[in-house]
Amino acid sequence: QWNLVVVGYDGNIQRRLMGDWFGEMSPERIGVIMVCLGALCFGSVALFLFCRQRRATVNPGISLLAPFSRFAARYGYEPKPEESPQAWLRRVGESVGFEPDATARLAGDLETLLYGEGDIQPAIVRQQLRKLRWKVALSLR
Question: What is the DSSP letter of 23?
Answer without folding.
Answer: S
